[in-house]
Design brief:
The chain is α/β, with parallel strands linked by helices. The chain has a single domain, classed as Vaccinia Virus protein VP39 (Rossmann fold, 3-Layer(aba) Sandwich), CATH 3.40.50. Helix content is 31%, strand content 23%. It has a 7-stranded mixed sheet with strand order 3-2-1-4-5-9-8, sandwiched between helices. A two-stranded antiparallel ribbon has the order 6-7. The model has no long low-confidence stretch (mean pLDDT 95).
Length: 236
């Protein structure tokens, strides 16, 4: 039934996680087996990157009992309602990330899943994961979307963040695939926590030549842009 289908709500709300709009990445069908199990038990969701609010509304409708906290570098309080709250946060700012963790710890807040759909910058993805993974409930999920930026060519830019050789060499795809986990941008304490608490990593990687922006970004070796996301499960 379409009411139980996460992809239905993504398409309804025109988020690119679905598969119908011109920029549809098809992530929703990958998420479905994970999300359907927690749909009615999910209490808290954290979304990083709000943009037009389509994803917030999708999760608001699908996870009917969940409170949703959205973080964005811009003020997005226009999306606040009975279960959605938004705050300003720059995920590239280590102090702001640490302050948010302290806020969650002091208020005993943890999340059934965290979804990073923010800047898509390689450093920001790993920096945020290093600080926020501990905020995921045991058995919960951490999602990093739009990992295609890991393959951007030198100098390619998205949202003002340029690809560097350091980012190419230590991209987020490499980080998720290597064992033990290790990153220039994650300190020793957080790295140890990650290595002890990651149950599994599942990566969705799909060619998507129909994307309207498929020719807008150059990738290493002229490789075509792909729709890539990931689910990292914390041990129960």
């Amino acid at each position: 039934m379409k009411e139980l289908d996460y992809n239905f709500y993504c398409n309804k709300n025109k988020t690119d996680k679905g598969d119908q709009i011109p920029n549809g990445n098809g992530y929703a069908k990958f998420y479905q087996p994970f999300f359907e199990k927690i749909r009615f038990s999910c209490e808290n969701i954290l979304e990083i990157g709000i943009d037009n609010g389509y994803s917030l509304m999708t999760n608001y409708e699908f996870f009917e009992k969940s409170k949703i906290l959205g973080l964005d570098i811009k003020n997005c309080t226009r999306f606040d309602n009975d279960r959605i709250t938004t705050k300003i946060l720059d995920q590239g700012n280590l102090q702001e990330l640490e302050s948010f963790v302290e806020y969650c710890d002091s208020n005993n807040v943890s999340f059934d899943f965290i979804l990073d759909d923010g800047s898509h910058d390689v450093i920001h993805q790993q920096l945020t994961f290093g600080k926020f993974f501990k905020l995921v409930k045991p058995g919960g999920f951490y999602i990093i979307e739009d990992l295609g930026t890991s393959y951007f060519s030198l100098g390619e830019s998205l949202y003002g963040y340029k690809q560097t050789q350091e980012k190419i060499n230590s991209n987020t795809i490499n980080f998720l695939n290597q064992r033990p986990f290790s990153s220039f941008w994650i300190n020793e304490e957080d790295t140890e926590f990650i290595n002890l608490n990651v149950d599994f990593v599942s990566i969705f990687d799909k060619t998507n030549g129909n994307l309207s922006y498929s020719t807008d970004f150059k990738c290493t070796n002229n490789y075509p842009i792909r729709s890539i996301t990931s689910i990292i499960k914390r041990v129960s």
